[in-house]
Amino acid sequence: MKTLVTPLQVLKLAFAEGACLPPATVTEADIAAAEHRYIVPVIGPALYERLLDGAYADFRADYLAAPAALFTRLTLQPRLDVRTGQCGTSAPKSDTGQPADEEARRALLRTLRTEARAMLRRAALHLRTHADEFPEYNPSRDILNRCTTDGGFVQIR
């Protein structure tokens, strides 16, 4: 499965330096789901396919890697907050740490979403201002050109 970033890149870009997560924490399916939900509606399917084929490597690395990683973490973070085993679903708890409360988990998701959206808007702005360099990009298909949510307000253009 082709994706804009690798699981290792997601771990490096979206998690803190000291996070001890095994590489198997992030799968290509997690990344593909996040990219199709958040990235493709902005850049369009034609440009997305070209990026997967290796085109525009600088744009991919400089503008899309961070939002793809952050949106992937946003997608899988709820799964990281619970464990599923023989006894069902539970929150991790040990002698050295306690699970975060609901308010802290919501704040983390809100922060991740805000940062990822800001990075994706940066990529969209670059596409709009350099549209001649990206012939596959169709600004009329970019969802950010039609509708955005800023500060709790939905803006339709």
Q: Which class of secondary structure composition applies to the elements?
A: mainly alpha
What is the radius of gyration computed over CA atoms, rounded to a whole number of angstroms? 17 Å
Task: Count every helix, treating DSSP H or I runs of 4 or more residues as helices.
Answer: 5
Helical content stands at 40-55%
Low-confidence stretches: none
Gap between N and C termini: 35 Å
Helix and strand sequence: HHHHEEHEE
User: Which percent range describes the beta-strand content?
Assistant: 5-15%
Report strand order across the widest sheet.
1-2
The largest sheet, given as strand count, sense and whether it forms a barrel, is:
2 strands, antiparallel
Shape: globular
What assembly state would you assign to the polypeptide chains in this entry? single chain
DSSP summary, beta strand count: 4
Which helices and strands appear, and what pairs or packs with what?
Elements: H1 7-14, H2 28-43, H3 45-52, H4 57-80, E1 83-85, E2 88-90, H5 102-129, E3 147-150, E4 153-156
Antiparallel strand pairs: 1-2, 3-4
Helix pairs in contact: 1-4, 2-3, 2-4, 4-5
Description:
- By secondary structure, this protein is mainly alpha-helical.
- It has one domain.
- 54% of the residues lie in helices and 9% in strands.
- The protein contains 5 helices and 4 strands, in the order ααααββαββ.
- It has helices at residues 7-14, 28-43, 45-52, 57-80, 102-129; strands at residues 83-85, 88-90, 147-150, 153-156.
- The strands form 2 sheets. A two-stranded antiparallel sheet has the order 1-2.
- α2 packs across α3.
- It is globular.
- The mean pLDDT is 86.
